[in-house]
Amino acid sequence: MSEVTSRRVVLQPTMVEVIFAWFQRAISGYCLLFGILYWIRLIGFYPGSLWRFDLMPVHWQVAAVMLAVFFPFAAAGLWMLASWGPVIWFICAATETIMYAGFPELFGRRPLIVASHAAVALLYIVFRVAIWMQKRRTR
């Protein structure tokens, strides 16, 4: 065996990295779903008092337009495992958390959405720390 072949590095993802990739793709599906729901709100497909763009108050118009664009964008980034995907998701999650936890008198209370965003963020941090620790051990 030559010296070159013995120093060859095999680049294969660890089990944690594979699970993390599928976690990001699952969150991508939820982001796409949320994006579609915001688009349904904007085009007025769903019957309801504030479910049409022209009938929404201004604060809802701004939030719905921003989230209708950002959630599908986050879904694409998360699905492709791009570094900007979690960043865009964080912007969407922070926006919805501020909407529902910070201004419940304007947007209503949605504790389940706030809790789900917090759980996803916590899982993301756990995965990143686990991957970092694995890489640190292998060095």
UniProtKB/TrEMBL annotation:
The reply to whether Transmembrane figures as a keyword in the UniProt entry is yes
Record-linked InterPro entries: DUF6163
Record keywords, A-Z: Membrane, Transmembrane, Transmembrane helix
**Segments traversing the membrane:** 20-40, 60-81, 88-107, 113-133
**Record keyword Lipoprotein present:** no
**Protein name as annotated:** Permeases of the major facilitator superfamily
Organism, as annotated: Mesorhizobium tianshanense
